[in-house]
From TrEMBL:
<dbReference type="Pfam" id="PF12833">
    <property type="entry name" value="HTH_18"/>
</dbReference>
<dbReference type="InterPro" id="IPR020449">
    <property type="entry name" value="Tscrpt_reg_AraC-type_HTH"/>
</dbReference>
<dbReference type="GO" id="GO:0043565">
    <property type="term" value="F:sequence-specific DNA binding"/>
</dbReference>
<keyword id="KW-0804">Transcription</keyword>
<keyword id="KW-0805">Transcription regulation</keyword>
<dbReference type="GO" id="GO:0003700">
    <property type="term" value="F:DNA-binding transcription factor activity"/>
</dbReference>
<keyword id="KW-0238">DNA-binding</keyword>
<dbReference type="InterPro" id="IPR014710">
    <property type="entry name" value="RmlC-like_jellyroll"/>
</dbReference>
<feature type="domain" description="HTH araC/xylS-type">
    <location>
        <begin position="189"/>
        <end position="287"/>
    </location>
</feature>
<dbReference type="InterPro" id="IPR018060">
    <property type="entry name" value="HTH_AraC"/>
</dbReference>
<dbReference type="InterPro" id="IPR003313">
    <property type="entry name" value="AraC-bd"/>
</dbReference>
<dbReference type="InterPro" id="IPR037923">
    <property type="entry name" value="HTH-like"/>
</dbReference>
<dbReference type="Pfam" id="PF02311">
    <property type="entry name" value="AraC_binding"/>
</dbReference>
<dbReference type="InterPro" id="IPR009057">
    <property type="entry name" value="Homeodomain-like_sf"/>
</dbReference>
<protein>
    <submittedName>
        <fullName>Helix-turn-helix domain-containing protein</fullName>
    </submittedName>
</protein>
Amino acid sequence: MNRKNTIPIIDSCSIDLNNNTTIHIDDLKEYIIKHQDMVFPHKHNFFHFVLFTKGSGEHIIDFNHYNIEPYQIYFMVPGQVHTWNFTGDEDGYVVNFSIDYFQSFLLRTDYLERFSFLQGKIEHLIFVLAEQYRPQATAILDQILSAKAERLPEDYIRTLLLQFILYISIATEKDHQEHSTPYNHKIFNSFQQLVEQQFKSTKLPSVYADQLFITPNHLNAICKSYIGQSAGEIIRNRIVLEAKRLLVNRNLNITEIADELQFKDNSYFTKFFKKSAGLTPEEFRKQL
């Protein structure tokens, strides 16, 4: 199979159409006008987040629909599929930055991995900022807008963006961290990273448990305590999500997708998909 066709990229958005830099920040209303021809399922090859200060309609991330509300913020990582259906009254901020934006700036190249909302996990992607955090969050984004307009040094802009990410982390993750142990948190994050790396080839929770040096029952208990799902469900959901992303690309037939996801045959893949998604791959593709 031609490898270039295995990733269903409908469109790869330019981070900055004018300056070809590694970060782009814009007023949301202006951004939507500039990119009104992108209202179809597509992927980015950079980090992307939006903070709505007002608006209505919905946006769709990895085939999940979310209604917009004031001070909702969503984060997307490279590879996620999304589109939107706005009603025209949106306002807020949109920020895109490249995968390696902080690479030469921070000693720890894996620093962003500490933030759950930058890991592409659906349970952490979208939230509404509590009222007490809103003024400071928008103030930092306004500073980034001004710094970009005034062409201030890039490291200054990086510092502001990192400040925003840290502030959002404080605003959204405090309660969760207070109710979890560092050990379990590390195990759960490590399991999610292993699933992301190996879900095509490794489909059994016991194999992941062995790699984490814990029992399958312990792994299940940790997963359920965090998101209410077993380890097997997390693995299956990741496989189905990738299948849906591949189904967006109509250049791939079902057999090629089954092969890409390392199923023994087309029939087994179809049964697996229908059991998890409630419809066959062909039916899902027709819905798109």
